[in-house]
Amino acid sequence: MPARNADIPLDKKIEFRIGINVGDIIVDGDDIFGDGVNIAARLESISQPGGICISDVVHQQVNGRVEAAFADLGEQNLKNIARPVRAYRIALDEARQETAAPTSAAPVAFALPDKPSIAVLPFDNMSGDPEQEYFADGMVEDIITALSRFKELFVIARNSSFVYKGKAIDIQQVARDLGVRYVLEGSVRKAGNRVRITGQLIDAATRVHLWADKFDGSLDDVFELQDSITESVVGALAPSLHKAEIERARRKPPADLRAYDYLLRAVSHQMANTPEAAGEAIHLLDEALRLDPDYAYAHALLAITYGQIFRSAVGPARADAQKAAEEHARRALVLGSDDGAVLALAGWTVLIVVPDVAGGRAALDKATQLNPNLAIALAYRSIALALTGEPEAAIESATKALRLSPVDPSGYLAVAGIVIARIVLNQYEEAAIAARKVIEMNPRFPMAYAWSAVTECGRGDKAQAEFRLRQLAEIIPGFTSKGLPGLFSMFPPAICDKALGLMRSQGLIAGA
User: Fold this and answer.
1) Considering the domain boundaries, does residue 81 fall inside one?
2) pLDDT given for residue 97 in this prediction
3) Do 85 and 145 share a domain, yes or no?
4) How many other C-beta atoms are found inside a 10 Å radius of the C-beta of residue 494?
């Protein structure tokens, strides 16, 4: 079973984790609690084989909630921690140690939404050609996008559905993992200029097939085939929807089908989020725009890809990437003003890369209005809301994003929105828990360490804040605390000043 990104609500759930073996020491996962950071790995005076070592903070949280005995180890000196920390050793029975996995001990089952809920699983590529995998994935992504535009449906996001790609699955287990009632699965066969798409809609609770069909046509008909599947699914789940509503939910296809093919090929490269992959994505998307200069989604993907380059580039390359990201984002906002997915990608770029907080916020507001099931738009918007002084709404948006995509690798962005919102609300303990969760979900995300340092300063834990900055320097070589003002300068003055003020209060930045 895939591990959940976060139980909802994230900041109100105590997680208890079994750790990993490091020699004869077990390092626990209590990094998410107070000063209990890898306690076992930092015990300087003793070794603790066969158990888990936690801090007093964690002991107070989990005592009485887990079946385990606690041995008081007293005050212990920890590596990289200036002050002694009271530690406890947890004695677990042998069977539990052998079978436990590094996930929540008792994952919370999601309650079914009060509307038809569906997950669209990756379709099988029946072409006999692994190179056609991108085409099958693209079909599924477009079907998910089309379904997600209906307010009457609850649609799991693509990133969570694709966790199951290439795996033997049990439909009922998938439905439990994702918290849905219905599952759509199918296959795609592309041979020459012909395409066959099959689909079957299953009621996971009963395993009954509500609908199954196949759709044949030429490549020129591919968008009509997708629309036919969408219409059939919507008709089975929400028969009260009218034809006119289905028509409005369709994305405008590109003027040239070859541009669509280039875009599908670019998606996997863009999602890889590496400099090499970004370069290939840009090449493919440039080809798509050469064929169709007004292809809104291609402009949006180019914007987000240049934004990825901007975050890691230095010098003139950074300025060039920023300029290209803004140009494509602005163009996408004009051409795709009625497409939630386009507005989400372009709005995020405008929010973070330009940066234009008001413009990004406006685009993301509209994206979630057009497509209320678009998890990534809700995650992006949670950050925009936190930055514009609406922390409660930010937490609500982030929570909905995590529910729509509960096993999403990019879910850390929604949790980052919670971090900023809790800082705005002066709720530093909750903010610290969320920040540690972001690090756990994406250890390569630099701002996770920066925001975590802010939360630790808010808690008054200078040593832990310094530890986070040392980790940040490992992500950004050569980084020092002198770079903090520049790092936070992309955010609105109120947020920037608060973050820097908290770090000044602990002496991490010089000045009053």
Assistant:
1) yes
2) 33
3) no
4) 12
